[in-house]
Amino acid sequence: MGIELELDMSKKKVFVKDASSIGGLNTGFFGKMQRGIIELEPQEALYLIDVRNAKCLDSQSNICTFNDIATLLYDKISLAKYFAYSAWRNRGLIAKKMYLFTKKFSNMPIVLYPSKKFEKYDFSFLANFYPNDLMSVVQDDFVAKKIYEDGWFGQYGSYKNETRGTTCKLDAFETLFLQKYSGLEVHNQNREQLIKICKKRRNDFEKLNSIYEDWRLNGFILKTGFKFGTHFRVYFPGAGPFKGEKWTHSKHVLHVFAKKSKMLISEWARAIRVAHSVRKTFVLAIEGQKKRCTHVSSKTSLDFVLYHRKKDNIAKPNQDDPKYLMMALYEEQYLSAEQLAHAIEECKQIGLGLILAIVDRETSVTFYEVKRIDIPGSDFEYYELEWVQP
Asked: Does the pTM exceed 0.85?
């Protein structure tokens, strides 16, 4: 005999009272048992009807279909959230409705990045700035070669062919950084004029520049991420344009998510996919994240508590701690930096990792794990986003 569910139309709730159904659902950690009756969450009821072929009846013994339940309970859960829940369950893993925790955990992953304080050059040098190109040129051959080889600033000679040319071309971020921290004099523009020109070209310039400065001051090297659909590609301290005789390839790309901006999920996920396809780690900078208050409101932006694996078995709610919290999103949905920052802050406060579940138009679900990056001395917080197969 199959699983039997009962729908209470007035309360908009689904229950299991059938004794033969209760045992199996308890073992599978479905619903909440009270006085011998299991009350199911909307996603659990839909899953049991959709995947486990459960039969649901109302008080008049009328059969209630998936659409009947989904329509009635749509104000409590969207289809995207249901498909994300279903994808996790279909992997044999357990997901429960998000609830407020009193216990704190230590499962939020933190990745330590090596840092090294930037050392300014002990000489002054000149450059000309070209406003239409947001680029400056250092003409002194000795200086041009030194800042390129020692600090990987700009491009000396031609790209990947340094023997062709004797100048060093600096982008706007490099120009402003060297002007502020290391003795560069731009003799045809002062700093205020430079910033004004750059802001006129792109209104998020100052946000990007503050992130650039933060990484460079901590010894990292940032170059354009244009080829990978991101703002920057990142190299760890000590990197140079060549490793032996081979060109040095980056292993990380960095995208800045401005606090007031929104991004279409499909575009955002595409950038992560591009990075993954070329074996690069996607790093997200959420502007101002470290300045956020530690208080999190009781209104959660997260959807499910996730239990994962332990050795060769699955984690169970009655004996194991959860590992992640899930935020489920649809391909055509917009996500703001503030929404994501709030979700991350919740995970930090609870001490669990964050899984972003992206549901596409075919109901396929892609999972991304968010890991906090620790850079000693940094003024911001950064996060690795990695495509995972749970």
From this structure: yes
Dihedral angle sign, alpha carbons of residues 121, 125, 225, 200? positive
pLDDT of residue 293: 43
Q: Per the residue annotation, which of 85, 113, 235, 324 is the catalytic one?
A: 235
What confidence score (pLDDT) does residue 298 get? Answer: 52
How far apart CA 46 and CA 65 sit, in angstroms, is 9
* Catalytic member of 117, 196, 199, 249: 249
- Around Cβ 337, how many Cβ atoms within 10 Å? 21
| pLDDT confidence bin for 215, thresholds 50/70/90 | very high
Chain region(s) in the chain for CATH 3.40.1170.20? 4-76, 121-208
Do strands 110-112 and 168-171 pair parallel, antiparallel, or not at all (unpaired)?
Answer: unpaired
What element of type H or E holds 368? strand 365-374
Does residue 249 carry a catalytic annotation? Answer: yes
pLDDT tens by residue, 16-41: 998 989 989 999 999 999 889 999 99
Count of C-beta atoms within a 10 Å radius of residue 171: 19
Q: CATH 3.40.1350.10 in the chain: give the residue spans.
A: 78-117+218-390
Domain 121-208 in this protein, CATH class: alpha beta
Helical spans, DSSP H, in the chain: 19-27, 42-50, 66-72, 79-89, 141-151, 172-181, 191-201, 205-217, 265-277, 337-350
Nearest CA-CA partner of 17 in 1, 2, 41, 35? 35
Of the listed 81, 223, 231, 280, which one is catalytic? 280
Residue 294 has pLDDT above 50, yes or no: no
Fold of 78-117+218-390: Trna Endonuclease; Chain: A, domain 1 (3.40.1350)
Of 74-83, 142-151, 260-269, 336-345, the least confident: 260-269
